[in-house]
């Protein structure tokens, strides 16, 4: 099967400032890909180029086998901070979007029920909370059967339960073969709910792969927190010259390869150790590692 | 295509109804028409025309100011509002052409304008005919005024869309719309009159002045209605020089202007980068 989205060597500059440089990526059918990056890294610009809203300066893009903006009936978009006309009701807004996509407007109510807005369908969007507006945005992205969903921070403003429901919706769509490209700042939920991560920094793609792959590539040190039994901390310090005192305990960092050897040395002193905690590099650490490596 | 235009029109109509634009437009037209028909029914006998034709002449002078104003008020927000609310990028990722979006908005706004115009003129005509049944002979003039008012309104709706696309900010679009209204409807005529007086029957009065009148949609509208009902002498402030312009020329200007302004609007909207 061919990729739903293919981008090669994409460049885009705004008035001499490079927003994207030499970005290449591919998203397969049924794949859920998370796009990470600090503010201004080029995530929204990349999405707008994919959607055909802004023209790239160079590079090639194929969306559902066509140029960006030419296969709009197969692509759904959820903008960051989804906004709608405050004078319309949720039902009117979704009905409008369904008609634009050539879908029967009779399904609008069902769609709003699916995102948990059925009770507020006949109220004006102006009276909605941010989370409710976000759900109107989600509802419109589900209209028809999009092959590619481009979601810009889809879970911002949603409570934890709504987030879980949202990712379940996405799982269903991906199982049907839809490709999903989403950006997010909530790293932990992205970790559990996507197949692959892309990290943008300063307009460049600095890392790509599944979380274990990125973890290996980053090769960040493992931290250990040792709590010594009364009075034995100097002994342990002597045995482990890299250790430092921190918050009343002993703190130690070592590389992934040295991890087991270090643990063996600590367990050899088990009569002097009260407790040991091993802290692997967090997703945040890996993310900062990649987004700082280039350009920052 | 038709379905998408209609869907946009229905949505715009909802918005206009909620924002009270329908109410404001209708109320403006009705109130001013009432005032004019009350004031215009006094001097009938002296002119030798039926009462309704006199009212139509007054309504023409009113509509030249009011119809463009209502049209601009409804349209200045059309594109700039979407840009400022942030609703435009999402809309443009839908399988809908930009001209279809504009066509849908135009349909809704023109429909509201027609309702307002028909309500206003209808009230004026009803009162006049009730007072003098012989006034029905002026219905032809009223009908002419009605459809030319709709075309004048469509022209200014298109201009409003174009300004809205160019400004990209609601406040900027509002300023441009008011400025343009003042310029085309008020200052343009004052400038022409001043030039005619200063020129004193020379080249400007004979050649430039008629062309300048035809180039302005509001002047062409006034010219057409007053010439057609031969009421130029009765109500036109533009004066005798205008009477020399053949009727077909002002008609042509009225018919072409909506197309020009809508083409400008489509062109300006295409340049808007979300």
UniProtKB/TrEMBL annotation, chain A:
CDD domains: ABC_DR_subfamily_A (cd03230). The keyword Transport applies. SMART domains: AAA (SM00382). InterPro entries: AAA+_ATPase, ABC_transporter-like_ATP-bd, ABC_transporter-like_CS, ABC_Transporter_VariousFunc, P-loop_NTPase. The keyword Transport applies. Residues 5-227 form the ABC transporter domain. Keywords: ATP-binding, Nucleotide-binding, Transport. GO terms for molecular function: ATP binding; ATP hydrolysis activity. It comes from the Bacteria. This is Cu-processing system ATP-binding protein.
TrEMBL record, chain B:
GO terms for cellular component: plasma membrane. It comes from Litoreibacter halocynthiae. The keyword Ubl conjugation does not apply. GO terms for molecular function: ABC-type transporter activity. The chain crosses the membrane at residues 21-40, 52-76, 106-129, 141-163, 175-198, 247-269. Keywords: Membrane, Transmembrane, Transmembrane helix. This is Cu-processing system permease protein.
């Amino acid at each position: 099967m061919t990729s739903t989205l293919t981008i090669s060597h994409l460049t885009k500059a705004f008035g001499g400032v490079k927003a994207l440089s030499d970005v290449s990526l591919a998203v397969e059918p049924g794949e859920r890909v998370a796009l990470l990056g600090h503010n201004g890294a080029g995530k929204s610009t990349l999405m707008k180029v994919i959607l055909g809203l802004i023209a790239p300066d160079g590079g090639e893009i194929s969306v559902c086998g066509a140029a960006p903006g030419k296969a709009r009936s197969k692509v759904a978009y959820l903008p960051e901070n989804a906004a709608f006309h405050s004078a319309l009701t949720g039902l009117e807004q979704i009905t409008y979007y369904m008609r634009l996509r050539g879908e029967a407007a009779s399904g609008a109510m069902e769609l709003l029920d699916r995102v948990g807005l059925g009770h507020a369908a006949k109220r004006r969007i102006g009276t909605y909370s941010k989370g409710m507006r976000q759900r109107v945005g989600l509802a419109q992205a589900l209209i028809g059967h999009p092959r590619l969903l481009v979601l810009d921070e889809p879970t911002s403003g949603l409570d934890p339960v709504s987030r879980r429901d949202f990712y379940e919706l996405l799982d269903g769509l991906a199982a049907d073969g839809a490709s999903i490209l989403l950006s997010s700042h909530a790293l932990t939920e992205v970790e559990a709910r996507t197949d692959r991560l892309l990290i943008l920094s300063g307009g460049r793609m600095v890392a790509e792969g599944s979380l274990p792959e990125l973890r290996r590539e980053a090769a960040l040190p493992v931290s250990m927190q040792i709590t010594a039994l009364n009075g034995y901390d100097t002994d342990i310090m002597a045995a482990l010259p890299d250790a430092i005192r921190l918050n009343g305990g002993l703190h130690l960092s070592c590389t992934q390869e040295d991890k087991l050897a270090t643990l063996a040395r600590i367990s050899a002193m088990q009569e002097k150790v009260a407790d040991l905690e091993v802290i692997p590099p967090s997703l945040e650490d890996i993310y900062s590692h990649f987004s700082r490596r280039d350009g920052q | 295509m038709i379905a998408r235009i209609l869907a946009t029109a229905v949505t715009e109509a909802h918005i206009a109804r909620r924002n009270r634009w329908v109410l404001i437009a209708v109320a403006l037209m009705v109130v001013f028409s009432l005032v004019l028909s009350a004031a215009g029914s006094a001097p009938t006998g002296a002119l030798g025309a039926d009462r309704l034709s006199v009212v139509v002449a007054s309504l023409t002078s009113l509509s030249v100011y009011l119809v463009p104003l209502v049209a601009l008020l409804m349209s200045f927000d059309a594109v700039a509002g979407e840009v400022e609310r942030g609703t435009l990028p999402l809309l443009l990722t839908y399988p809908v052409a930009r001209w279809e979006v504009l066509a849908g908005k135009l349909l809704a706004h023109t429909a509201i304008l027609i309702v307002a115009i028909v309500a206003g003129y209808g009230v004026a005509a009803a009162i006049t005919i009730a007072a003098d049944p012989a006034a029905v002979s002026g219905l032809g003039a009223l009908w002419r005024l009605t459809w030319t008012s709709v075309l004048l309104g469509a022209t200014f709706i298109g201009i409003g869309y174009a300004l809205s696309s160019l400004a990209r900010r609601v406040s900027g679009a509002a300023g441009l719309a008011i400025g343009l209204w003042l310029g085309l409807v008020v200052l343009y005529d004052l400038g022409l009159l001043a030039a005619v007086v200063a020129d004193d029957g020379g080249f400007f009065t004979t050649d430039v002045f008629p062309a300048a009148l035809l180039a302005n949609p509001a002047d062409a509208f006034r010219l057409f209605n007053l010439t057609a009902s031969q009421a130029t002498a009765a109500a036109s402030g533009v004066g005798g020089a205008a009477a020399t312009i053949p009727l077909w020329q002002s008609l042509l200007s009225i018919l072409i202007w909506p197309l020009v302004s809508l083409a400008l609007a489509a062109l300006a909207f295409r340049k808007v980068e979300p």
